[in-house]
Design brief:
four-stranded mixed β-sheet; alpha+beta; Sufe protein. Chain: A; binds zinc ion; 5 helices
Length: 149
């Protein structure tokens, strides 16, 4: 498992250092601010939807490596997906980082699997899920800002 762990670590470090889709979006359908006051993570998620499809996702902001890598992976994972597919991915991701992996396959997880180690650090779950919570709020058309507290 240690090789796998090393690989996952590399994925997180890479996405933290070179976050994907890390920019504002001028033609966003919605944007929502997400805060995790426990850690100081703060991001704005921009979404452009086309009917039921997430045509584009981007984000700006700052926070710890886990939160930034998670926002980066989230943005590149849900782009082009339907809202329902994105919600299912969030559900899968939430189970992964809280250690409830029974029945989850590698195919379900894809690159989200890099965050499996988070389940050993419960305090970091909010870091890992912040971008997903914020995306969900944007897709649901709810509040303009969300907080993990
Ligand atoms: Zn954090």
């Amino acid at each position: 498992m240690s090789d796998l762990r090393e690989l996952y670590q590399q994925v997180i470090l890479d996405h933290n250092k070179n976050p994907r889709n890390f920019h504002e979006m001028a033609d966003a359908t919605r944007h929502v601010d997400g805060y995790n006051p426990l850690c100081g993570d703060h991001y704005t998620i921009f979404v452009r939807t086309d009917g039921d499809t997430i045509a584009d996702v981007s984000f700006t902001g700052n926070g710890c490596a886990i939160s930034k890598a998670s926002a980066s992976v989230m943005s590149s994972t849900v782009k082009g997906k339907s809202k329902e597919e994105a919600e299912n991915l969030f559900h899968t991701f939430h189970r992964l980082v809280t250690g409830d992996t029974s029945g989850l396959s590698a195919a379900d997880l894809g690159r989200l699997a890099a965050f499996s180690g988070v389940s050993e650090f419960p305090a970091r779950v909010k870091c890992a899920t912040l971008a997903w919570h914020t995306l969900k709020s944007a897709l649901d058309g709810q509040a303009e800002s969300v907080s993990t507290e």
